[in-house]
Amino acid sequence: MEQRAFGKTGLQVSVLGFGGAEIGFEGAPQGDVDRLLASAIDGGLNVIDTAECYVNSEELIGNALSGRRDKVHLFTKCGHDRDSEFGLPDWHPDLLRQQIDRSLTRLKTDHVELLQLHSCDEETLRKGDVVEVLQTAKAAGKTRFIGYSGDNEPSLFAVDSGVFDSLQTTINIADQRSATLTIPKAEEMGMAVIAKRSVANVAWWNGSAPPESEYARPYWERLKILGYDFLTRQGKVEIVGTALRFVISVPGVDVALVGTTNPSRWLENWLMITTGHLSAVEYETLRGRWEEVAGPDWVTLT
Q1: What digits encode the pLDDT tens for the residues 88-138?
Q2: Does the residue 18 lie in any domain?
Q3: Per the domain annotation, does 183 fall within a domain?
Q4: In this structure, which of 138, 215, 263, 282 has its CB flanked by the most CB atoms within 10 Å?
């Protein structure tokens, strides 16, 4: 599997990574996660990304990696007290400290490769105390690197601040704002870039019928306006491949995350992108159509 340099960190990462949100939110059984990650790691996966607020995703991953922790780079995020276990507001420094230690326990490790602030707003970022918590965790050996995960203007501030090793941000065929807003500058500064929502919630899957998920519907509506030719010309599997190949073709992107609960799906996704980048013409066609159609209200969805 193709690997890329992860910014200036010195890590080498598989171009396709595993996003751990779905296994938590959709209640994946431990056995399915075990099989999924075992086959993916055997196939060349070495990036697993999760977060403390993805229900039990961290526990599922920690259990699945028993005896294989050294095969992967573990990324997680902190900031949202989704389960109200600590009784503290989001982004409170004490919340972050407790979450970091809990994440390590859940993941059954003494450190992660990357610890990220999860969709932190700009006002909170400007105060600086949340960044100090991550920097302290890094100094204590709980993480090798620190990053920011988010979109729009807060992500631009995070990049401009120069304190983070990485940026995780949305980039896909229906949501390309970061391709000009943040990714080029992050690349220029030597930051690693992680692409999230890489397949745009497969919003096209039902064809002319809107998706049931309210999360995916805005992308479906955008794609109707964008009217990409390949969405009608290719089959469902080919479309996913083209969408993924678009993301890995974006200059500056080091790894694209894809989540699934299907034990065989990650390898299927990998096979879809073995042909590599889109051609220059294919890539510029998709970028050009976005630049032509996207209105000022087409901000990155959160």
Answers
A1: 999 999 999 999 999 999 999 999 999 999 999 999 999 999 999 999 999
A2: yes
A3: yes
A4: 263
